[in-house]
Input
Amino acid sequence: MSRSVFVTGGNRGIGLAVAEALAGDGDRVAVGYRSGEPPKGFLGVQCEVTDPNSVSAAFELVAKEQGPVEVLVANAGITRDTLMLRMDDATFDEVVETNLKGVFRTVRTAAGGMLAARRGRIVLLSSALGFLGSPGQTNYAATKTALLGLARSLAWELGPRGVTVNLVAPGIIDTDMTKQLTERRMDGVMKMTPLGRPGTPQEVAAAVRFLASEEASYITGAVLPVGGGIGMGI
Ligand code: NDP
Output
């Protein structure tokens, strides 16, 4: 299989592991990066998801170089943790701009080509802790659970044309993002995790790869948890 894939925030962490997994299957993978250098071996495309012009330019470049996007993995995301009483509007808005509006504008840009092609896969990175609720993360949790409403509405809009939209909800994964957690918080979350350890980016990538595959053709509007059992049953 050689599809045109675009992964936002694909230069490190989970995004990079997803890019590697799909490229390993033979897909043509473009990696969106915001800063620094793109990883070698991929089509590197500058893409700042808070900037509509940057998003449109990125999709145009991907289409020119490897064809219209057939698989979108909306992975770029940030945390700006602090207790709500100390959280100013700018801190809340920054997370909404990236994690929610960034995903919205990326998906909207991808959807046109997928509708025309009558096929496509959209996978959004949500969060198991978002669904559980997480102290200090009102902004982050609000955006990550909002993606469910976005995905399910979109599943209705795009389903008739063979395009699926699903969420992967990781628990604690060993990336730069979770290096910011205090030891106390990490211990607390591990106590809520039956498998008792953080996951790897590759373990998340395996779930994304499945939802992006032909095998997942009858799955849409779903949430696939990859959290070592954290929050199971909710
Ligand atoms: P990292 O912090 O390791 O990487 C985040 C990626 O997103 C980077 O490539 C970063 O680019 C990019 N990014 C951030 N903001 C923007 C922006 N405005 N425009 C474009 N790119 C941007 O995070 P992870 O790999 O850990 O997380 C990936 C996704 O998975 C996120 O959506 C996260 O919320 C989600 N997730 C992660 C969990 C975890 O435990 N790690 C758990 C649950 C969900 P740059 O290098 O320029 O900063």
Notes: The pocket of NDP is lined by residues 8-9, 11-15, 34-35, 47-50, 75-78, 98, 102, 125, 127, 170, 172-173, 175-178 (CB under 6 Å).
